[in-house]
Design brief:
The chain contains three helices and four strands, in the order E-E-H-E-E-H-H. The chain is α+β, with helices and mostly antiparallel strands.
């Protein structure tokens, strides 16, 4: 796999403000719902699903702000993966050589 993906959902409220990660109730009360999926290498949008009524300007604002949210999600992925690797490296250092897969010298 060459890229990781992040999905971002938001709704547009009646006052035209955007709300991120809405509940089912907030989705029902909204005037428009957006789902954007981004890939991490260039942070390009690869999937969009919209329902409800909105203008092009409102859509473009949701697209722009969701890209910022996706960037934060990718940062979280990165931090989590780095923590996992650090734990794995520390654990690997504690293992005896035979479990690590190292070849032991044969006795003469």
């Amino acid at each position: 796999m060459r890229s990781m993906f992040a999905g971002v959902s938001c709704v547009q409220q009646e006052n035209e403000e955007l709300m991120w990660d809405p509940t089912a109730e907030e989705e029902e009360e909204s005037t428009a719902q957006y789902t954007f999926v981004y890939e991490n290498s260039k942070n390009n949008v690869i999937y969009v699903h919209c329902t409800g009524e909105s203008t092009i300007e409102q859509y473009m604002l949701a697209l722009q702000k969701s890209r910022q949210v996706a960037t934060e999600v990718f940062g979280f992925y990165r931090e989590s993966f780095e923590k996992l690797l650090r734990k794995d490296v520390k654990f690997q250092m504690l293992l005896p050589p035979i479990i690590k897969g190292e070849i032991l010298e044969e006795p003469e």
